[in-house]
Design a protein that fits this description.
single chain, about 290 residues, alpha/beta, Rossmann fold, N-(1-d-carboxylethyl)-l-norvaline Dehydrogenase, domain 2, 2 domains, nine-stranded mixed β-sheet, 13 helices, 9 strands, about 55% helix
């Protein structure tokens, strides 16, 4: 039986740090590791009883459950290969990064070689959801892995679903990222259209947000976009990375992602202009012709 009260967390970025904080609040977090060691030290100083591990081998050897939240496929592969030789038989690795479904499948196979349970568990909800513990978590892996992960998942999220075998969580996240890109583009176009008509746009946001066209993005970002403010929830550069993953998956599956392709081109303009670390709502800079 996996000891979920002995959970380690790898990757204390904008999403990872608040997720780890919620694990600590639930009494589950024992140790942390971050590539930038000072960030791990700062986290531990603010969370009583949390140990900072010197390296990945250390956190792997001292944790029954490892939660990983890193930026890219290569980062995940490197972490998995570093921790697996030191993880105990029957322990659990939960990956909350966003990577290709094929990468998740390959990492699950590597875990199986070491008798380690694997669960790909990418999240949606931005930094707000990470802070509030209200993330939507889409999971791929065995029934045993999903069951063993419940205490950790419930500490970090509010909508937790088992989507199928390894890779299914990441495939579902890819669908989510495509949808998010399309909603972003639609809200941008609609707000610019409304402004061109001379409407009272704050009121427009309230009205359409309460109707059939309402969505999280217009309700939480519409008014700030109109003011030229872009509070960080999810970085342009990270969504662009995710959409490139989606493009590769679509090409392999024979699917078409025309809207995502267009958004990715505009994200490229933002990144070229130095706005890659801004929130994805900064797409309005392109819509308004500022970039």
């Amino acid at each position: 039986m996996t000891d979920t009260a002995n959970t380690g967390f790898i990757g204390l970025g904008a999403m990872g740090a608040p997720m780890a904080s919620n694990l600590h609040a639930a009494g589950l977090l024992g140790a942390v590791w971050n590539r930038t060691a000072s960030r791990a030290a700062e986290f531990a100083a603010a969370h009583d009883g949390v140990t900072v591990c010197d390296d990945l081998a250390d956190i792997a050897a001292t944790s029954s459950v490892l939660v990983v939240c890193v930026s890219a496929d290569d980062d995940l592969r490197a972490v998995v290969e570093a921790v697996l030789p030191h993880m105990a038989s029957g322990s659990l690795l939960i990956d909350c990064s966003t990577v290709a479904s094929g990468t998740a499948e390959a990492m699950a196979a590597r875990c199986a070689e070491h008798d380690v349970l694997w669960l790909d568990a990418p999240v949606s909800g931005g930094t707000e959801g990470a802070i509030n513990g209200s993330l939507s978590i889409m999971c791929g892996g065995s029934d045993d892995a999903f069951a063993a992960a419940q205490p950790a998942l419930q500490a970090m999220g509010a909508n937790i679903n088992h989507m199928g075998p390894a890779g299914a969580g990441q495939a579902t996240k890819a669908v989510n990222q495509v949808l998010g890109a399309g909603i972003n583009r639609a809200v941008n176009e609609a707000l610019a259209f409304g402004e061109s008509l001379g409407l009272p746009m704050d009121k427009v946001v309230d009205v359409v947000g309460a109707g059939a066209s309402g969505n999280w993005f217009i309700n939480h970002r519409g008014k700030t976009m109109l003011r030229g403010e872009y509070p960080l929830g999810f970085k342009v550069a990270l969504h662009a990375k995710d959409l490139r993953i989606c493009q590769a998956m679509a090409a392999q599956a024979g699917a078409k992602l025309a809207l995502s392709d267009a958004v990715l081109q505009d994200f490229g303009k933002l990144m070229d202009a130095g706005f890659g670390d801004e929130d994805v709502s900064a797409l309005y800079r392109v819509t308004r012709g500022e970039v």
